[in-house]
Amino acid sequence: MRTSKKIHLKDDMTWQMMRKILLEVTDDNGVVDKAVVAIAKKHKFWRWSKIGLIFKRGDVIFNGKSNVHINKVSKDIFNKYINFQYPEHKVYNAPHYVKDSKNMTVAVVPQGKEKEFIEKQHKVEAPKQLKTFSLLWGLLKFNY
What we know:
- The chain has helices at 15-25, 36-42, 49-54, 67-82, 114-121, and strands at 96-100, 105-109, 132-135, 140-143.
- It is of the alpha+beta class and 144 residues long.
- It has a domain at 10-82.
- β3 and β4 (140-143) form a beta hairpin.
């Protein structure tokens, strides 16, 4: 999917553009009743997907038809839109659960340490070498 090169850049954005999209998206009571992201994409907003994270369908934005109130709300939402920061992903080692079918237990082991844990739990003894005893010049052999 190709995007047009006529997308508004961050520096070109103004709160008046946000006001226009808010009036288009909301009904007379100030409730969002249309798809916000699709309309922002149609208006070629810079990072149009952020608008869907700021307000969604069903949110009450305006509580009347006062132009002063609509302008104030538009400026507030515009500041949220420009200064919006995505939440950072926390990187950590998630615990790994190892099931022990012999003892019917579950153990929590750090990631990457599963093999060591399993080897430690299930140590296998080396097979014993049987000794042979032979009699009568090797005709009778006894293993013990």
